[in-house]
Design a protein that fits this description.
The chain has seven helices and no strands. With 288 residues, the protein is an all-alpha fold.
Length: 288
């Protein structure tokens, strides 16, 4: 009975393959079927390996517990070096098996992430780098993070452009509304005297508002000009102070050089009188 059911399933699979080959020749359908088969085989291998790891972990845990009891019992052993080596080797193997168990627990989620990121090259990479799955996961997640950051930058750029276009749209709507209002008033002005009065009043209002804005801009410009002049004056004073400080520093360095050479009759006649008075006392202190 089970054999008949298996034959029916195989017949259905064969029919599906024939339909795929007939309707989609040289397409990804055939590749998808082979990849699904590979995935099933890998899942089976993963379950077998996980079961083996669990059994090895249990066995090694028992060995480690027994060796630990023997080590803590205080008994004397003839071959203590071999005993310690066996205990250390069992502990290392147990840690290795535990790491593989952790990796197998998280592998389904990580496999799905990698498959979604690059489904075409997923299985060949998995087969080639099976001993180094952690490195493969790290590389794939790093590439995925790079792609996310790139998409995020593009999205922000598009949002900035969209906001700028919205502002331009609002300005254009306001200008269009103003032009439509002026056009309507012109049409009324052509047909009636009241329309001409309304048009004149409207233009005077626009002129008055524009003049107010111009006056406000002019006032702001004057304030900015005053601030600029103040900053220029401060800058000029700072430059003068910097030059004076630079001259003082040079004079002080020269005084130190003269003092280091043992010269006590430092002549400052070529310098400014104010500098001479300022550094005479300094030089006399340095000389003493």
């Amino acid at each position: 009975m089970e054999k008949d059911e298996g034959d029916d399933v195989m017949e259905e699979v064969r029919i599906l393959r024939e339909k795929i080959d007939k309707e989609c020749p040289n397409s990804i359908g055939r590749r998808l079927v082979s990849l699904l088969g590979s995935m099933k085989e890998l899942e089976k291998q993963e379950l077998d390996f996980q079961s083996q790891c669990s059994s090895d972990c249990s066995r090694l845990q028992k060995e480690v517990d027994e060796l630990d009891k023997m080590l803590n019992s205080g008994a004397n052993y003839v071959d203590s070096d071999a005993f310690h080596h066996s205990f250390q080797d069992s502990s290392e193997r147990l840690e290795s098996v535990k790491k593989w168990e952790i990796l197998l627990v998280i592998s389904p989620t990580l496999n799905w992430v990698i498959f979604c990121f690059d489904p075409v090259n997923f299985f060949p990479h998995l087969l080639c780098f099976a001993p180094n799955l952690a490195i493969l996961y790290e590389l794939r997640l790093s590439e995925l993070n790079t792609q996310i950051q790139k998409t995020l930058r593009q999205t922000r750029k598009h949002y900035d452009t969209y906001n700028a276009l919205l502002e331009i749209k609002d300005l254009m709507l306001k200008e269009t509304s103003l032009l439509n209002s002026i056009n309507l008033q012109f049409q009324n002005a052509i047909t009636s005297a009241d329309g001409r009065i309304k048009l004149t009043n409207s233009l005077e209002g626009i002129l008055y508002g524009t003049q107010q804005k111009l006056d406000k801009v002019q006032l702001t410009h004057e304030l900015e000009q005053k601030s600029c002049n103040t900053i220029k004056e401060k800058y000029t004073a700072a430059i003068s102070e910097q030059r004076r400080s630079s001259s003082l520093v040079k004079l002080f360095q020269l005084a130190l050089m003269k003092n280091a050479q043992g010269t006590k009759g430092f002549d400052l006649k070529c310098m400014n009188t104010g500098y001479h008075k300022s550094f005479s006392s300094v030089f006399s202190r340095l000389s003493t």
